[in-house]
Design goal:
Helix content: 40-55%
Order of helices and strands: EHEHHEEHHEHEHHHEH
Number of strands: 7
Number of domains: 2
Strand order of the largest sheet: 2-5-1-6-7
Number of helices: 10
Strand content: 5-15%
Oligomer: single chain
CATH superfamily of the largest domain: P-loop containing nucleotide triphosphate hydrolases
Largest sheet: 5 strands, parallel
CATH class of the largest domain: Alpha Beta
């Protein structure tokens, strides 16, 4: 049985990956958003709440995971972060399998996975597109986010594979250091190249 061409979409923090994923959805490509799945599973009545509460007591409530408390419990603690990932990652992988079944008739689907190279690996994807921008644009975007500090940004970057390395591993690169119109043109061209039957 044939299945869609699976494009893994990734990029470091502040590179514009979410904007690119939105463009792909607008064009009609099914996008699996790993972060959105995690938010759903950690939200009110989320399937991961019991396991997270057991591992990190006091970090969940009626509204789901208290992101500030859970963040404080794992931030800067590699062992705690590994415990959390052991709960979250298998559940996301199952959701991804369901997504692929639901969109089996599509010529192309996208897996939007922030830490694709760092955590997930390229298993299950046919090609990888890396969203990239100049370092100064990345820094400006990230530091404009509410609650973000230079220290937090540095710690996040330390956990992510350097952009140059991601670019070297990519099959396709989408440059967001340009205008939105130019970025969209790159996205459209890539989708047309990967799904000629559209």
């Amino acid at each position: 049985m044939s299945r869609p061409f699976v494009l893994g979409l990734t990029g470091s923090i502040g590179m514009g990956k979410s904007a690119v994923a939105s463009m792909m959805e607008e064009i009609g490509v099914p996008v699996f958003d790993a972060d959105a799945q995690v938010r759903l599973m950690q939200g009110p009545d989320g399937v991961l709440l019991p396991a997270i509460e057991a591992a990190f007591p006091g970090t969940t409530g009626p509204d789901g995971v208290d992101r500030a408390k859970l963040g404080a419990a794992v931030f800067g603690d590699d062992a705690a972060l590994a415990r959390l990932e052991a709960i979250v990652h298998p559940a996301v992988a199952k959701a991804r399998v369901r997504f692929l079944k639901d969109h089996a008739a599509a010529p192309l689907v996208v897996y939007d996975i922030p830490l694709l190279f760092e955590k997930t690996g390229q298993a299950g994807v046919d090609a990888v597109a890396v969203v990239s921008a100049p370092a100064e644009a990345q820094r400006e975007r990230v530091l404009a986010r509410p609650g973000m500090t230079a220290e937090k940004f540095a710690q996040i970057l330390a956990r992510q594979m350097p952009d140059a390395e991601k670019r070297s591993l990519a099959n396709h690169i989408i440059d967001t250091g340009t205008s939105l119109a130019e970025t969209r043109a790159q996205v459209v061209a890539l989708i047309e190249r990967l799904s000629p039957t559209r």
